[in-house]
Batch of 2 targets.
Target 1
Amino acid sequence: MKSAWSGFKAIVVKDLVIELRARQVLPTMIVLGMLIVFILRLVSEPSSGRVEMPMMAAAALWIAFLFSGLLAQERSFGVEQQNGCIDGLWSAPLDAGTVYLAKLLANVVILSIFEMVIVPAVLLSFSLRVTARWLDLVIVLALGNLGISSVGTLFSAVVQLTRTRGALLSIVVLVVLMPMLIPASFALLVLFGAMPEEVAGSGAMAFVGSFRVAQGYLLAFDAVFVVACWLLFGVVVEE
Amino acid sequence: MITEAARSTDMALTVRSVSKAFTARPVLRDVSVALRRGQAACLYGINGAGKSTLLRIAAGLLRPDAGSVWIEGNDVREHPDTAKRCLGVISHASMVYSELTVLENLRFAGELYRVSDRAARIEQLLTETGLGPFRYDRAGILSRGLLQRLAIARALLHEPTVLLADEPFTGLDVQASEHLIGIFDTFARRGGTILMTTHDTRLGLRCCERVVVLDQGAALLDKTKDEIDPERFAEDYLSYARSQN
Amino acid sequence: MRRWFMALSIVMLILSTWLGLTKGQIVPIQRNILYVHVPNSIGALLGFAALLLASVGYLVTERQIYDWIAAASAEVGTVLASILNATGMIFSRAEWNVWWTPSPRLISSALLWFLYVVYLILRTSLPGSRRRRARICAVFGIIAFLDVPMVYISARFIPDIHRPDFSFESSWQTLALVLGIAGTIALAGVLIWLRADLLRRRFELENQLHN
């Protein structure tokens, strides 16, 4: 256990140092994210107020996270491809699961830095206020971040190590993440004041919308996929 | 670090009937090579003969379809950590991060291998490889020769007993090649075992006392230097390689 | 053996359709699409179970037959999910006058279809070693299976539109549905079997070509 820690820490620190020093992807992520937010703000403008801003804001936030997240994940193992560094990593006495967790943490940190820029941008451009519930907002965003990164880190290894085109990464990651986005955007809408805390539904598949349930769903989603990806990572990277 | 099991045998590296196929065409067919401790062997073969694949399997980077690899008495698949700790790997790719400095690259490798007394060991290697003055330079701006020295320092940092080198001379000038041969010699003199591949017949013969020729994934020839005439071998091999195309 | 299974499944499907259109007819007439829709939705879900079992089987035993079964399950699953979505859309148009509307059921069906299609794209886009491709696909198969309950729970955050209540008035209707389900599952099973066998033969031919 202690032995894995040294390798884990080394990889996280190395990845963050490289990213902060070479700024390979964060600027692109932030600009892409801001463009997405800006475009969604623009296309909602001609409706002169008939499109509800909180809805567009929630859409803008999750789309920006997903696509900028993909850039971060693609870089994650892309950086190991140059100079054959990946062989150096696998020839070291390291457990594949440790490599996965380290890469995951590095990706979560990079996406968090991105969120710190993009969330204020969304709140400002869509004139939203969440001051009273900022902690809930942070929790929802963090849970979303972990979910996006967990699946993304696993398949970024697949795409980079088999030298497949990056488009494959986006479809694989997006399709697995799709279900997460419904509760995620529900939670944001509650925080933006566009939805009541709890919505009682009817019908055979009774509507279970409540902020706590949405949060619980995100937590469960993260737990399932972090554990599954961690366990399956070794299988994926083995040649 | 040598385990009890390893002391009982004097084989440092054993490749036992290894086969591997990526597609329907097999790359390695039932190849066996065993190196005694302190022995240096060179793998020859044209492109596609399976040299790199064999080396990657020995390094635990690839899993063989059949057969096993033992490093200092440890099965690479069953005890990967112990086996990998005895292994140093060099290739034509430097396996270092361009954005990190020489020192940071070595520290990173030191942490991966959990080298004890890291700082002292890194200093020692910086001196041995002559990289001392470049310690704060980013690996990305180093010349090819210096980069290869860094790759070697990285591979030797954790004091491995077996060195695997895949085309280590690629892209090196005469001076850098000589330096690399010097390092191999020192490593062998300290009792280290080397398995390398190269296209340069003469360089290979200078470093190694044993030659293995792979042909379509099988060992065609496996002789020690005493059993062959190095000059003849070099010529014969060249004409063989030409005939293959 | 396979031929008999195939014949049996087709007879069951024809019988189900015939019963559904005669003695077991549901009023209004468009609701009879249920006899195709429900069996396909069950089949599409079972396809993920087959994909999971084959994927886990491959990772545990490394025997290629499991990889072929996984591929075949996903292909058959794609067909079932496509029919599921098409019939769902036709029904939606007839019942509510819209081709598609985000209700939990329709969303779940659409997401299942996407999962299958991405699995198939993943299969065809991975270069390199056959074993590695099989392993990666097996991993995605497992992840996709884990995603299915996630899809069903998450779709419930969307309000359910008013759904027509189906209460079976006669046992003919129940029989037609049961026959439809049994026939679809049997047909899917035979198709997976056939397809996996075809993949095995292709593999053997490729091997002969190279040796």
Target 2
Amino acid sequence: MPIDIDIAHVAKLARIELSEQDMASYRAQLGVILDHAAKVQALPTEGVQPTSHPLDMVNAFRDDVVTPSLDRDEVLSQAPDATDGFFRVPPSLDNE
Amino acid sequence: MNWEPVIGIEVHVELETASKMFCGCAVDFEAEPNTNVCPVCLGLPGALPVPNRKAIEWITKIGLAFNCSISERSQFHRKNYFYSDQPKNYQISQFDVPVCHDGWLDVTVAGATSRIRINRAHMEEDTGKSIHVGDSGRIHSATETLLNFNRAGVPLVEIVSEADIRSAAQARAYAQDLRTVVTALGVSDAKLEEGSIRFDANVSIRPVGTEPFGTKVEVKNMNSFRSLERAVDYEIRRQEGVLESGGIVHQETRHWDEGEGVTHSMRSKEGSSDYRYFPEPDLLPIEVTDEWRDEIAATLPEMPAARALRYVALGADGDSASSLAGSEALATLFESAVEAGAPGNVVANWLTGEVTAWSRRESLDVAESALTGKHLRDLAAMVAANSLSSTAAKEVLGYVLAGEGGPAEVATAHDLVQISDSGALEEAVDEVIADNAEQFARLAGGEDKLIGFFVGLVMRVTGGKADPRAVTEILRSRIS
């Protein structure tokens, strides 16, 4: 029995429009992934160092040195709309 | 019912590094829009972030200055949300293991000192800047939004206090003291009006004597310490009004409107889980070893609170000492003047009085004035030698600040030097006595209030340049 997932909420957070049929299909597929995660979570991990990265390395830094940026005209030419050196987008109110 | 405010403050500090947090684009707010952008800070596919070592050093420095523990190992997370000023659709931030945690800052209001605990200071990146174009220029009626990504990816440190603050005045004091420390560290210009330091307040209230927190409201958009205090004060009273009338305080973000002096509801706050934080797979963990931490600790300057105590020992009063310690320019002048031999109390008063007023009036930093510690020493010496009255000294100070020259030169040029030569003063007194023999006889006969009459005449004869105390002394010597 796959773990239930609020697929409409997930789709909304990802700004993806899904049909009822899509939702059913993704609900099942994501449920399987969550099942797998639950299995991993159930493993005895006492004494195991938490890992957030597959490489056993830390501190890959750069020095605080300025390097050249991109050409603005080229950058703005990739955007759907631009004006006076700015990207132009529809009015953004807030997160919703 | 009596209510107790419970306030926590989140501070965002933009670091003044040369380059951005994860790419080599310049940090430069004067630059033409969208000229400091690259694949990393524009979130183009395939671009890989590489952290700026100096930013990690500086957040460690900030953490140490606020008495935080430094995590030996911390990591970056992605905070996922959609907003047009965030080109990647996630912000690289930190979640469960910030670089700095569990610190504190002592704050004094009206003589009472409270320890405000700091939950954490974590490393993240700033967003781009939006310009909302529309009829009234307000966000709600905007017809389009213009985006400048020069700020996107600038290193940002978020400092989160515990909900230990209990009044609007304390919130203001915490913010001011925190800014003073950050400025002293030299890691940010920390200008409120330019947004390089930003304060948000989480405000709730609860009945006095109870433990559980009320529903908290996040208040944003305060761009001065005064507006922070006003906004928190307003929000406390608003919540009291809502609860007193049987209403419910909703968890939300509210926007402070400086002109109207009220907060407006912005949006319902998304729960933390809606950001779907997960470890940033493109970045390795950060390790600050004890050795590295100690190296950074060795670069910490004297903290403002410690410096203020030292200034009190040098003669400044408590309030002046705090003001001086909070300003690099004033502190430098104070120290060099005292080192040159000037009395601390006199110099402290000038610096926090006339000099600060001049700086506000001229909208110039004191460091940009011609004033030096030696000038202050010389000026104090002239007052001590009675060759300047304390009123004239303030006037001289104004001319020195304006760059007209040193105190002696300026005082002479503006004819402000007191007659300190006792021979010349005695001559003036005797002249006045001779011209007013009848009144002098009455004075000598015991009509003591006439002393003011004579002092006034001598002042007039000398063009106001006599020291009234010296004149009085000479008059007394003539009576006996």
